Amino acid sequence: MADLAEVRVANNGETDSLGALAESIIAHAPPRFALAGHSMGGRIALEVARRVPERLLGLALLDTGYEGLAPGKDGEREAAGRYALLAMARREGMRPMARTWLQGMVYPPRLIDVELVEPILDMFERRTPDLFALQIKALLTRPDATSVLRSLQCPALVLCGREDEWAPPSRHDVMASMIRHSTLQIIPECGHMSTLERPQAVNQAFRRWLESIEAHA
């Protein structure tokens, strides 16, 4: 069995495909491994599960989704919103764009929490508009992962903030219902950035998830 005490952080390289990002993770992963992904990372994790389900010991999906781009006006609205942020990033810089992006992404009372907000802005500032554009294309061309969720056999953690407006609890409830061995965790007073907003609660959920993997083996 893989050593679950070893933690590796994948580098989402410069590509415009969730599949290509998944292939990079697979190429550098041990023979058996547990995988956790947040937001876009959750969608990449599902693409890993699509390709090598037999290698997964466990899967954690945080503040994410599984459906492809919606058809018609809903999909057009999502694309327009993403490209408006990209235009702002090119015009004003990544940090000013991130301030706008954050308005709907963290629990509203914590928007004035400097210790939370500044590191998130720093994270965005370390990236470029060109990389942002690649990520947008990857997300807008995302495949539907319903079949992946239904076929998962490993223990899965499905987690999100209760106040996550972008990836709401109702979506995670549906995701968890499709996975055979799943645990749903909704964290109160928490938006989309759960790992930064409520790290202790997320870590506790991770510990229980890793224990379930050990028991499932």
What can you see in these coordinates?
The termini are close together. This protein has 2 domains: 18-68 and 143-216, Alpha/Beta hydrolase fold, catalytic domain (Rossmann fold), CATH 3.40.50.1820; 72-139. Strand 1, helix 2 and strand 2 (56-62) form a beta-alpha-beta unit. It has helices at 18-28, 40-51, 72-92, 94-102, 114-125, 129-140, 146-151, 169-178, 194-197, 199-216, and strands spanning 33-38, 56-62, 156-161, 182-187. The model has no long low-confidence stretch (mean pLDDT 95). It has a 4-stranded parallel sheet with strand order 1-2-3-4, with helices on both faces. It is globular. It is an alpha/beta fold and 217 residues long.
Attribute tags:
single chain, 217 residues, Rossmann fold, 2 domains, 10 helices
Can you tell me the residue ranges where pLDDT is under 50 for at least 5 consecutive residues? none
* SSE pattern, N- to C-terminal: HEHEHHHHHEHEHH
Q: Which strand order spans the largest sheet, edge to edge or round the barrel?
A: 1-2-3-4
Quote the average pLDDT.
Answer: 95
Report the C-alpha radius of gyration, rounded.
17 Å
Find the structural class using helix and strand composition: alpha/beta
Q: From the coordinates shown, what is the CATH architecture of the largest domain?
A: 3-Layer(aba) Sandwich
Give the proportion of residues in helices. Answer: 40-55%
CATH class of the largest domain: Alpha Beta
| Head-to-tail CA distance between termini | 8 Å
How many beta-strand runs?
4
Q: Give the CATH superfamily of the largest domain.
A: Alpha/Beta hydrolase fold, catalytic domain
Shape: globular
Instruction: Please summarize the sheet with the most strands.
Output: 4 strands, parallel
Annotated CATH topology of the largest domain: Rossmann fold
